[in-house]
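We include this case.
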Amino acid sequence: MQEVFHYKTAGLPNVWLQGGVEFVETPYGPATKIENLEDLHRLIAEDIINRPGVMTREEFRFLRRELDVSQRALAGILKTDEKNVSRWETGETKVPGPAAAALGAFYLATTKHDDIAETMKEIAELDREIVEMRTFRMEGDHWETAA
């Protein structure tokens, strides 16, 4: 079995790498070299976005940093206050689902160079898969739950 490396530099406590890691000596001492770091970070970001469940503060911050936007800029994109973004990233409050979804959509639209409308269609389709559809029908002069 290949040895695993706990990759902490990205600020995520639960990322481990198999292969692609080289330990090198530099004039400043030992260092770690990660192959194709950009591809690794893209894969980590997509894993965060596609995984069900609540986005953690570390994951939210990782995505923001990958987009290279400030808390202030992200607050503007998400139509919220900069203090909210800070609270989410420090863990003072949990990252709300809509903010996590919007950040994920923004990341995908930005990095895949897709048309934002296509990304929004994907989110809408995912929403239909996740949310149980409740249907009601008009029966005479009153509403009923449809089967």
Q: What stands out?
A: The helical segments are 37-50, 57-67, 71-78, 82-90, 97-111, 116-130. The CA atoms of residues 7 and 15 lie 6 Å apart.
